[in-house]
User: Which sequence fits this backbone?
């Protein structure tokens, strides 16, 4: 490459080499570019030593020797990344075709060719007409079987392995790393004291006395201990003075939010890479999900810069997807790793949330809930599609099911970030959120059930649905009468989950109002339609999910969410103890919560209830074993419900 010309000079010389075919106007434009380039040269690039003085003139910069920007490893990786097997197969097919023509070339073999084609036609005819005893027809069937098996084998999805995962655990929390010092464990008294001392930019208190009382009430009933952590921008460490009216400038700023994100994510990723012995240059895909903090450059770019990852690394940054974004990130990684271009790749998934700039400083009760529930946290997961990683992987991905009910306006606005009446930004939680979450859950498990439930549970669910539909009369009166007569029979009771209550007796139909002598009685209100005893004894069947999963991780959206999930899924009291213990220790860490729960399961098995007050314990202790199935389920804004199913590869 000739470095003696600047870019405009090179362009001008190139135009002259075209034999004068360029117009004079283009030449004048090129000269103006040269003058503009000389007056405003670009920032100097690295020339030799980084300590040299920057060059002032473009001509000096053009004549100076430069280092080649692209590294040798990038060039080699470009050749390696190309699918060499595809080129080998194409070349082999060409050679095989040419060799076939060479073998078949014969000027005096026309009769043999015709006989061969007739034999092929006869074989196909025998195959189509089901002629028994035909060797040629059987040969066609064998060839088709081999072809279909080959296509099936080549189209099989690549297995996705979870090599390992890590969560950020503060040194002040049980099981925390002594090097994890970012964040401040906050007692309820400390949190309420900081809330009372919080001032807006005018020097006035942010919260009214009613708002303080409301937050204090929620904190006491939230089920969160005093070990959960807040960022230092909200709760300064001991010995530091509160930021007062300058909090939004000095602490609750973009800088503070970046520091929180970097401290949580980078420490977690560093621990994961060290635990797996993985170099940052080996990672081909980086996916980061953070709902409320989406800076520029992105959080995924922050990881690439911090760990100096390679230049062809695919990066994705998911925002605004709420607490269910962890499952969405896993599903995205699954789709990428199963792509043809990502064979033998590693994917790094990081789930976190940032509350520095999202500490609501107003008095709307619908937005104050976020202050009392959300805490700091992060999780890093390393996924692989390499068969060689099966031996060291901890889990294998089985299914991902995503449900989005955002077409309904009520569901779409159930969790929304907006300004309150005073113009203060926060996240508003709708009062109907539990009902919306229940509807999303029902749709999600309806899609998940056929993939994971045993056949017995699927048949019970199907027969129950048919019986309820017929008993309501939606299939016609004859079908209704037949269903209502068959359902109570002992033969069908267990199939349709019919459980009558002996105390329930059919109520007589209301009689018409009595008439007075020659006069109508005064109008009475229409009596309420009595509940149908048969439909009451035939509730919707809830499948036994304990027959499909040994462990269930429910997003720690709050104590009410966990209680509702336990009731609606008819789970034993100890099944959701990992979720309750995670909420107790770490609070609602948003999309990372399902990974905190899985880590608690790996450490404590079904004895998580022993590590929190009023915990529930099963009769028989049990650890995480090889072959166990784990169900992670989370809800998020939009409104979404996402499920991820894993199979354990190594017991704890």
Assistant:
């Amino acid at each position: 490459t000739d470095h003696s010309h600047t870019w405009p000079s090179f362009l001008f010389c190139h135009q002259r080499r075209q034999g004068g075919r360029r117009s004079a106007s283009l030449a004048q434009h090129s000269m103006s570019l040269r003058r503009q380039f000389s007056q405003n040269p670009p920032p100097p690039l690295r020339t030799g030593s980084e300590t040299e003085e920057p060059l002032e003139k473009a001509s000096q910069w053009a004549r100076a020797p430069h280092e080649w920007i692209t590294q040798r490893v990038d060039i080699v990786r470009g050749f390696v990344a190309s699918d060499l097997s595809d080129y080998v197969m194409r070349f082999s097919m060409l050679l095989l075709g040419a060799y076939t023509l060479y073998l078949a070339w014969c000027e005096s073999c026309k009769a043999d060719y015709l006989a061969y084609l007739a034999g092929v036609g006869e074989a196909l005819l025998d195959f189509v007409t089901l002629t028994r005893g035909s060797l040629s027809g059987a040969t066609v069937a064998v060839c088709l079987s081999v072809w279909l098996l080959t296509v099936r084998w080549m189209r099989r999805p690549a297995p996705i392995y979870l090599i390992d995962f890590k969560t950020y655990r503060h040194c002040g929390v049980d099981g925390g790393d002594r090097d994890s010092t970012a964040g401040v464990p906050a007692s309820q008294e400390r949190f309420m004291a900081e809330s009372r001392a919080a001032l807006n930019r005018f020097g006035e208190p942010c919260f009214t006395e009613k708002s303080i009382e409301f937050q204090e009430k929620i904190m006491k009933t939230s089920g969160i201990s005093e070990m959960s952590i807040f960022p230092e921008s909200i709760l300064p460490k001991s010995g530091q003075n509160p930021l007062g009216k300058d909090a939004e400038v000095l602490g609750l700023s973009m800088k503070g939010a970046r520091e929180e994100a970097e401290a949580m994510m980078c420490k977690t990723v560093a621990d994961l890479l060290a635990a797996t012995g993985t170099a940052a240059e080996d990672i081909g895909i980086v996916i980061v999900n953070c709902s409320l903090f989406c800076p520029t450059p992105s959080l995924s770019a922050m990881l690439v810069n911090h760990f100096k990852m390679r230049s062809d690394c695919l990066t994705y940054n998911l925002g605004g997807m709420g607490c269910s974004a962890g499952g969405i990130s896993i599903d995205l990684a699954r789709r990428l790793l199963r792509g043809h271009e990502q064979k033998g790749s590693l994917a790094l998934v990081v789930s976190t949330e940032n509350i520095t700039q999202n500490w609501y400083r107003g008095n709307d009760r619908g937005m104050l809930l976020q202050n009392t529930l959300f805490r700091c946290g992060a999780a890093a997961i390393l996924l692989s599609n390499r068969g060689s990683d099966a031996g060291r992987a901890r889990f294998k991905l089985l299914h991902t099911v995503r449900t989005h009910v955002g077409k309904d306006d009520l569901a779409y606005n159930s969790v929304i970030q907006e300004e309150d009446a005073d113009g203060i930004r926060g996240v508003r939680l709708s009062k109907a959120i539990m009902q919306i979450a229940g509807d999303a859950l029902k749709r999600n498990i309806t899609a998940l059930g056929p993939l994971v439930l045993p056949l017995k549970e699927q048949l019970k669910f199907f027969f129950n649905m048919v019986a309820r539909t017929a008993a309501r009369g939606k299939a016609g009166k004859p079908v209704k009468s037949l269903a209502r007569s068959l359902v109570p029979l002992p033969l069908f009771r267990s199939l349709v989950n019919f459980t009558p209550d002996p105390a329930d007796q059919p109520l007589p139909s209301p009689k018409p109002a009595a008439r007075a002598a020659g006069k109508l009685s005064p109008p009475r209100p229409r009596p309420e339609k009595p509940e149908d005893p048969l439909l009451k004894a035939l509730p919707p069947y809830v499948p036994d999910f304990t027959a499909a999963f040994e462990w269930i991780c429910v997003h720690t959206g709050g104590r009410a969410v966990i209680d509702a999930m336990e009731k609606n899924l008819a789970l034993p009291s100890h099944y959701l103890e990992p979720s309750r213990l995670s909420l107790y220790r770490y609070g609602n860490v948003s999309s990372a919560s399902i990974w905190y729960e899985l880590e608690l399961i790996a450490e404590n098995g079904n004895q998580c209830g022993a590590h929190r007050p009023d915990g529930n314990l099963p009769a028989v202790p049990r650890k995480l074993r090889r072959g166990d199935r784990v169900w992670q389920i989370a809800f998020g804004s939009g409104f979404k419900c996402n499920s991820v199913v894993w199979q354990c590869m190594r017991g704890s």
User: Anything to note?
Assistant: The first helix runs from residue 7 to 16.
